[in-house]
Amino acid sequence: MYSKADTHIHTTYSDGLMSPEDMIDHIARRTDLRVIAITDHDTTAGAFVAQAYARRHAPQLDVIIGQEVTTREGDVVGLYMTSTLPPFETAAEAVEAIHSQNGLAIAVHPFSTWMTLGNMRGLGSRIFTLPLDGVEVHNGFPGNFICNPLSKWLNRYRGQHLPALGGSDSHVPYTVGQGFTWFPGSTAADLRQAIETNTIRAGGSLWTIPSLIGLFSTLSQTGFRSHKRAFSE
């Protein structure tokens, strides 16, 4: 049995539009995801809230503690974290710190920097040499229609052929699961084993028209200016 995981989701604990609790409710009701990772920028707090809430209200959904770690060289997502990490100067420092927690270090949107208004900071060619555990080759943001296939090709034919993940990079409820990772099994432990054995596959779409309609409906109620980063990170 194969299941879907979304390993790149943001909440109001960084720059998302939904609280961890509301995000869990939406995912449990509206998607077929079995595993998710909450990966707020530079904090694991929202992930711990989401995990505790899911255990009480959506036990069919496994929540991984994650964090999108900021470095001057680009962002690195840590999965299976135990505590919050600070920003780092270099990506190598971030990867080492993630591994020190027995976490997995994932390069997200690695070649997106110049294709998405400059706000998605990826590692670029550093994915060829860093001791990463995986690379996100499908990111749901619409600006990645070129970067996604480029990331996939470079990882496979020029890089380390790292396990290839998909994530929505969702900051709004309507786009969760539109980038995902297929894996054998149905739990967070199964996903970890699949990443470590490179038996995963990225899938999904970019943001769809219904997603954008829902997004603009939410923004019209809450104010576009206060949430403009939801479009670009």
List the helices and strands and how they pair.
Blueprint: E1 2-9, H1 20-30, E2 35-38, H2 45-57, E3 62-69, E4 76-79, H3 91-100, E5 104-107, E6 134-139, H4 147-157, E7 164-167, E8 179-184, H5 188-196, E9 201-204, H6 209-222
Parallel strand pairs: 1-2, 2-3, 5-6, 6-7
Antiparallel strand pairs: 1-8, 3-4, 4-5, 8-9
Helix pairs in contact: 1-2
Can you tell me about this structure?
This protein is α/β, with parallel strands linked by helices and about 230 residues long. It has one domain (about 1-230): Metal-dependent hydrolases (TIM Barrel), CATH 3.20.20.140. It contains 6 helices and 9 strands; from the N terminus they run βαβαββαββαββαβα. Strands 7-6-5-4-3-2-1-8-9 form a 9-stranded mixed sheet. α1 crosses α2 (about 45-55).
Which tags fit this structure?
single chain; 233 residues; alpha/beta; TIM Barrel; 9 strands; 21% strand; disordered C terminus
Query: How many domain modules?
Result: 1
- Percent range of helical residues: 25-40%
Mean pLDDT: 90
Helices, by number, come to 6
Tell me the structural class: alpha/beta
Strand order of the largest sheet: 7-6-5-4-3-2-1-8-9
What is the architecture at the second tier of CATH?
A: Alpha-Beta Barrel
